[in-house]
What does this fold into?
Amino acid sequence: AGEKKTNVVVKPEQGYGERRDDMLLNFPAEKAPAGLREGMKVNIGNGAKRMQSVVYKINHDGSIVLDVNPPLAGNTLIFDIEFVGFREVDRGMSIMGWGGQPVTVPFAIASSPVSQALQDRKWPAEWPYSKFDFRRQDETDDALFYGSPRLVSHIDDGAIGAIRKFYEVHFSQAPQDDYAVLDICSSWISHYPENLRAKRVAITGMVEEELAANKQASEYHVKDLNTDPKLPFGDGEFDFVTNVVSVDYLIKPREIFTEMHRVMKPGGVAIMSFSNRCFPNKAISMWVADMSDGPGHCKIVGDYFRFGPEGGWENICSVDIS
It folds into this structure.
């Protein structure tokens, strides 16, 4: 405690992204509210989650240009971090696993607000989100953004190791060499254990070059689930459905989670993993509204399970494995 670590540098591509000219929105004079000033912050949209913008320019004809880039876009961030103390954590959780069997996750942080987010939760009576909640700063075709292969890791080694251990705990319950897994929105790596003993490993994703490079996959299917959420599989084919750091980009999650439920065998397990990092211009608005709200993100994903399909999933829980 008291030791200072300085100059932690976050480049734009690791943080809020570069500034984009296509994030400057033009509005005619008749749609511009009175009293605006350049530099003023303005909320646009009328849903539960609003997108914040800044008045970038007021033209002579009264039309305006709004900037919806993240405020820190294009900036290199430098942090000075001082460790002021440590908090004891309570590790170890028992959750429901494959075949309805309880499974112990010894490294889970039971005392974390993330792990407690869905415990005894009072679920909404109906689907709580509007179309506005799934708007993104960059609404251009996803194929333009994801089209070039990115053979890189989007999370750090510690996070990858934790996810692999979590998968290993769950996969060990299924009959070895005889279970099937599906990884949606996948890439060149699925973060599965190196000693994976699955009979079938199917993956879907948007970039064929990335999918073809996945050494653990036995088959791949190029699929943009934001365009067409229908999964290219029959009913009840998989024991596990997984996804790593992509749930925050889904604009049709209810349909996709319903499809996940359809292709899963009775007693199967779906695992959605996410972090506090993302491409903010492609993540949905209600997700990036507060990137530090881990429990809130768990509730969003919990609602996806709860209503996709309604009443279809059981034992919905969240686990902090950081």
